[in-house]
Amino acid sequence: MTKITNNCKKIFSAVKTLSIIFKMMLLFMNHYSQTYRWL
């Protein structure tokens, strides 16, 4: 039971990290496209 909980926690933290990275990438792409439009 403890092993399953630990695995779930690991997966959850990994998903959280991935979502944060994805959001950062989206923000960066949005900012970059806006800057590119101004040129």
From TrEMBL:
Transmembrane segments: 12-32
Protein keywords: Membrane, Transmembrane, Transmembrane helix
Highest classification ranks of the organism: Bacteria, Bacillati, Bacillota, Bacilli, Lactobacillales
Listed name of the protein: Uncharacterized protein
